[in-house]
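lol ok so funny story. i was supposed to be doing the assay writeup but got distracted and ended up predicting the structure for this chain instead. priorities right. anyway since i did it might as well share w the group, maybe its usefull for someone
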Amino acid sequence: MPELPEVEVVRRGLTAHVVGHGIDSVEVLHPRAIRRHLPGAADLVGRLEGRTVAAAERRGKYLWLVLEPDSVALVVHLGMSGQMLVQDPSVPDEKHLRIRARLDTGTDLRFVDQRTFGGWALADLVTVDGTDVPDAVAHIARDPLDPLFDPDRVVKTLRGKHTEIKRALLDQTIVSGVGNIYADEALWRAEIHGNRPTDKLSGPRLHLLLDHVGAVMREALDQGGTSFDALYVNVNGQSGYFDRSLNAYGQEDRPCPRCGAPIRREKFMNRSSYSCPTCQPRPRLVRG
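and the output, tada:
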């Protein structure tokens, strides 16, 4: 699943090319792409056509378009392979095109999804902590790039839990937008092993870790996100380049850029974690 920088790249593209324009027509080409919209395809099409895209918003990994005149949200689930592409109608349909919206500019907004884990759904906007978000996103915490992100509050929450720090970073109700890639990169920068208990880390060290989370995301955003294959692209179909700057994630057996020790790979929550055995020693087991 794309993480915050990749979703923000898409959001910025939608702001530039879609916001302010009307939706003239919509075609749903695959039923799974609207399975989260329980009223069905006809309802989605009827409620989208004639609306204007007023804004493209994001919280963490969650993306939505605000539609006027009734301020409803079109929540876009990118899933594992979802793409939002702005295309000229003359461009041949993509093999995995799932939804097409024709804008009043004459261009297409296409939702392409090879693995069909993503989709579109309409949701009501609700106000949470002074910010309007779709009701389906109301439980998601603010992310480190949010101007109202409160690191003191997050540190207090982390120190009040007894769980592994990487597991906590991936919990979108604590801090949103962080996935496997950027968790490993931030932990490497902070020299913290992902299995360390949150309640055993000091406040200053947790603040430092959150600083690194924000920094690595901003750097990834500057490079268009991280793309390991052709699935993660912006609205113009271009890939990001941050994968060329990764220090830990995916670097198994390569030398740590800081100390030279070979980066190790470990199993974690049905996925992999990457860390330096010297800079990020595993926590000692406490025997009872």
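The mean pLDDT is 92. The first strand starts at residue 23 and ends at 28.
back to the writeup now i swear
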